[in-house]
Specification:
The structure holds 2 protein chains of 2 kinds. Chain A has helices at residues 4-12, 14-20, 40-51; strands at residues 25-29, 32-37, 57-60. Chain A is of the alpha+beta class. Chain A has one domain. Chain A has a 3-stranded antiparallel beta sheet, with helices on both faces. Chain A starts with a helix and ends in a 17-residue tail after the last strand. Chain B has one domain (23-117): Acid Proteases (Cathepsin D, subunit A, domain 1). Helix content of chain B is 10%, strand content 52%. Chain B has 2 helices and 10 strands. Classes of the chains: A alpha+beta, B mainly beta. At the A-B interface, helix 3 and strand 3 of A face strand 5, strand 6 and strand 7 of B.
């Protein structure tokens, strides 16, 4: 899972990221911004290529973890 | 453009089962690679992709890349966001996607609107047929 350093680093740069990279996917590793990508596939490939199985934070700029996403899981028995 | 068409014997079956197809999920782990074929429900009512959390964490050992607050029947909860390779063999589609880990009650995934951005989905409630193009 992403480290506290990565989450803290994202939060500290949130305003700057939202100004310059809204809608892009960013990768943080060891508390550093290491890449900006157009889509999740590219971001994930970039993270895997650079860091392998070592955890990274991959987040879409503008997505807030505090935003409640809509899910629709309703099933009949 | 590649496409697959599938369906049910009656439109009532499509109403009950929903538009689901078999996909392959791969954890892309270099030391412990695991892949599994499982059903994916195409769910345009969901913004994001979902995966059964116990499957993601305990069986597939997917890499967690973020967290996300979600609204559940028991109130808001912070859920893990996993990265996985999604492959649809019939469409030669294979990309990394993100999935929120939740309790789906069974080993399956839901492909929400984010997961469907690459596709053209045709849902025929009249005939019980579904077409997915990539």
């Amino acid at each position: 899972m992403p480290t506290e350093d990565d989450i803290r680093a994202y939060d500290q740069r949130r305003t700057e990221l939202e100004r310059h990279y809204a809608g892009k996917f960013v990768v943080f590793h060891s508390g550093q911004l290491v890449g900006v990508f157009d889509d999740f596939d590219s971001a994930g490939e970039g993270a895997l290529r650079q860091f392998g199985d070592s955890p990274s934070l991959i987040r879409k700029v503008g997505d807030s973890t505090r935003k409640h996403v809509s899910i629709s899981v309703i099933r009949s028995q | 453009m590649a496409s697959i068409e599938w369906g049910y014997r009656s439109r009532d079956d499509l109403v009950r089962e929903g538009p689901a197809l078999e996909v392959v999920i791969n954890n892309r782990n270099t030391t412990n690679p695991i892949h599994k074929q499982l059903p994916a429900l195409l769910d345009t009512g969901a913004e994001r992709n979902l995966i059964e959390d116990t499957l993601a964490s305990a069986a597939l050992h997917l890499m967690q890349v973020d967290d996300q607050w979600i609204q559940t029947a028991h109130g808001p909860a912070l859920a893990p966001v996993y990265m996985a390779q999604l492959t649809i063999p019939q469409l030669t589609y294979s990309k990394l996607q993100r999935f929120i880990g939740v309790d789906l009650g069974t080993d399956r995934i839901l492909l929400g609107r984010e997961g469907l951005v690459d596709f053209l989905l045709t849902y025929s409630g009249r005939t019980g047929r579904v077409t997915l193009e990539y």
